[in-house]
UniProtKB/TrEMBL annotation:
UniProtKB keywords: Signal
Domain DUF5916: 255-317
SUPFAM superfamilies linked: CBD9-like
Keyword Signal annotated: yes
CDD domains: CBM9_like_2
Record protein name field: Carbohydrate binding family 9 domain-containing protein
Stretches assigned to the Carbohydrate-binding domain: 35-177
A Pfam family reported for this protein in Swiss-Prot or TrEMBL: DUF5916
Superkingdom field: Bacteria
Entry keyword Signal: yes
Coiled coil ranges: none
Amino acid sequence: MKVSLSILVSTLLFSGVAQAGFQAHQLQKKEAIKLDGKLDEAVWKQVTPHTEFFQTQPFDGVAAHLRTEVRVLYDDKFLYVGVTGFDNESNQIRDSFARRDKISIDQDFFTLYIDPSSGHKAAQVFYVNARGAVMDGIYSDTSGDDTAPDYEFSVSTARFDGGWSAEYKIPFSSIAYDKHSTTPWSLLVLRNMTRDQRYRMYSGAVTRATSCNLCFSHPIEGMQDLPSGMNWNVTPQLVGRRNKDQTEGKPTLSSSSSDLSVDFKFRPTSAITLDATLNPDFSQIELDSPQLSGNTRFGIFVQEKRPFFLEGADIFRTPLNAISTRTIANPDVGLRYTQRDADKDFSILTSRDTAGALVMVPHTYYTGYANSTVASTATDARANFRLGSMSLGAIATDRQYADGQGYNRVAGPDFVWQVDKNQLMRGQLLMSSTNAQLDSKGNIARGDVTTGHAAYFDWSRGNDDYGMSVSVRDFSKDFRADNGFFSQVGFRSVNSDITKKFGRMGELHEVNAYVSAEYKVDSDGNILSKILSPGVRVAGPYDSSAYLNISPTVRSRVNQQGELFSIGRFAWGLAASPGKQVARISADFSVGDVIDILANRLGRGGSYSMSAKLRPLDRLEVEPSFATNWINGRGDSGSQGRAYSETALQINSILHLSPKDTIRMILQDARTKRDPQAYTIVVAPDSSRSVNSLVYTHRASVGSAVYLGWTMTKSETPGFVAQRKQSELFTKFSWQI
């Protein structure tokens, strides 16, 4: 009998894990499923359900206190999964309205982790809450959920006296798999419910100490003769805009435009996907949240949300951010090839980026930027091979600037080794070559060739009593990755964490004490930071958690010729899910010494941030968030009061008119204030930026939607930059053929 290497090694490594699998039943032509969530067709009764579930939260390593049943069916086009969750207090089920990809831990939901390769490295995830709201994406144990990708699937839910149930109908065309593989698919099912506690219950014996949740998935036995997966779709998008731009002291500018773009997807087989886009529209329907950035030296990472770049996004994910498709700022054409086999993945993406983009140029003490005055072609390629508990990969990127303005190229290997279910090792080595340098005007121009490297290694291990991790980084000062995200280079660092787990103490479910440490130097051996930081974390009822962290002996340098500051500070925070109306609250605080980056001076200050998820009405969600930083003057420069403060506020509210229709309003405000007497250079006393957005959305299905929206942006730096108001009224139609 033929047994795949990955199954054999996984069995040897994780032989202590229960191997009760899922039994799939093939539907006959006369058998049909009515997707109503009720699982009342006779064929569901013929399937042996999987009922062995384990608690991971609030208590680890015990059988689930409520019964959950999972059944699997399939035919020549669809995979059907039925999940039934029994509940002794079904009137307490949290069945909130939610937008797609916005299901949260304060709700009752089911999640399917489907891994067609059984490699235990990544899985497609399909969520549904008790109201029928959905969320989907890619999951990996090293980076968690990425809910940006959207897949075509249907699911219905139903309530009954004693619980709720869900029926999934997932097209095989939405799942990437190798039709010819003899390795059974793997499935892990999560049931989440939040009451006086948050309960996480898995279909495998997942523990909080594990670094490999997917290692506890079970095979789906009985699926055979799956379809080839060949299919295609075309998605035209039509966008109309009317813009107004008002700058104080200048004439008002108005303009109107309309654009047609096309996305094309073709799957010749179940394992291969070809994507193409022409004149894509990447209008931001969902605004990026404002972030505090006034007292930082380095670039801030922004998550990819644009549909074309999301196919196979998990393949591009490596220990280092060697590929970040947000660096492709304004493409006018793009092509992508993605292949997923039982033992390997491969993807290559190429896109033409129009002129005018900013190029990140990292340094040791700050992130610089250059202007690309010409178009460029960005190409990213990644291959990953699964060898049982280990995966070996390689990555290559190329950015070729037009008109002979140079190139940037990066390549190197990486590995992930799941030594056992609680121990993980990862590493990556990248080499770069660049002759696209900065000229005297800050523009990209052809220059001398520079080379560099970026190396990374980490190791983690844990059990019920302790946890520990170590990571090492070595980035040369000439390393550059124009297709990736690296905000700092020219340093070496070692980070470590040790945690002692005390388990339950009275009403507290979990008590952990930990020590974090960092040692970081620049390429010349100068200390950048030395940190030794003890702390404690606890978890309790209502999915509550709290932490206290003390950093009495931090050393930090922010300027190559500047002082190595001694810093003392402490931080604390808490979070909880009190109930249906106040679904989630969280707050984080820190006080102590703070380095004023612009002045290269130490001051007293701190920061705090607060957020909440509120549901005052059944159909209304309100999500406010607020964050602030501040630094007080110390009198040595004539400033006795507050030298610097920055705030960022967002209020995101969503009204659900129906499961497919929503009205979303976002109010954002960001402000920075500085005391000019506290600085030896000229600074702006005040600057502000506000954004208001109102969008109506009708989402018929994946790829088919109508948007009608209005956005107003106002920015001002009195005495430096005149007040500017920009407004846009837009309509967007997207339909999938």
